[in-house]
Amino acid sequence: MNIEVILIILGEPNSTFSELLFKYFSSENFEKSRKKIVLVGSKKLIENQMSHLGYKFNLNQISNIEKSRLKLINILNVNYVFSKTYSSISTSSNVYIEKCFNLSVKIIKKNNSVVLMNGPVSKKHFLKKKFPGITEYIAKKTNTKGPVMLIYNKRISVSPITTHIPIKNVTKFIKKKIIISNTVKINNFFKDRLKKNPNIALLGLNPHCETIDKVSEEKKEIIPAIKYLKNKKINVSGPFSADTFFLKKNIKKYDVVIGMYHDQVLTPIKTLFKFEAINLTIGLPFIKVTPDHGPNFEMVGKNISDPSSIFYALNFLNKLK
Q1: Helical residues (DSSP H) of the chain, grouped into ranges
Q2: pTM over 0.90
């Protein structure tokens, strides 16, 4: 079934996410939107934030997504009691955010013409160390094992085998089975959703893919995984040394780079494309997108945040079938 609705969880109330959405709604991109957009969150809060930032939009409050309309800002209201339009991030919004996620997951489980976008949340205050990131939080809610983080840009995308875990623990998760599982899911996503047979590069873990230890992760886990994937006719190459991989000549050859830990691949892609990238969670029963930015509390309420990631995410979803 074709995607018809983009369901947007507003996330942390004290963030720049609503501001970035307002900038999108003010643009030609919204006028050209081919999907219905439905916000999930507090109508009163959004109206207050609009007033504070100098925007004026009509919100179409609906009771279910079937009543949503194209080129209107539809909203499913979730009550939230607040005293200030913007405040410090704390645990006081946790119940509200949880309600927004619960409602959205309930809707999307019943309707496969819906994709999910979520605004940022505070790992410290909302996730409270129970989950490494929002990827794992959503996976728990949908009983999904092994979700995969893909930071997508049309020129080149990246995916870390390990996400938000301390560097000292990374080697525990560099396993042949995990590398194979993640790579297969990424390959299938590109073929099924983007209609492309991707060229995939795998990075090594150690500097120059070498170590003074008797057995390296490259020899024990990564190279055997690559051999297995090649036997399954998946276009993979590697392992490559991370320090020189992200040169222009390599970027032109590959569609996806799979790294072994978070900053190994996210640092270069953010350097190359800044906010023109989106965080896709692959392996869920539905497509989930997160714009590639956090709550950005330092800029809250100032109307100076860069909306590039929101534009990139919504433009991507509008083209998705």
Answers
A1: 17-25, 28-31, 43-53, 94-110, 134-141, 176-193, 217, 223-231, 242-245, 248-251, 262-273, 308-319
A2: no
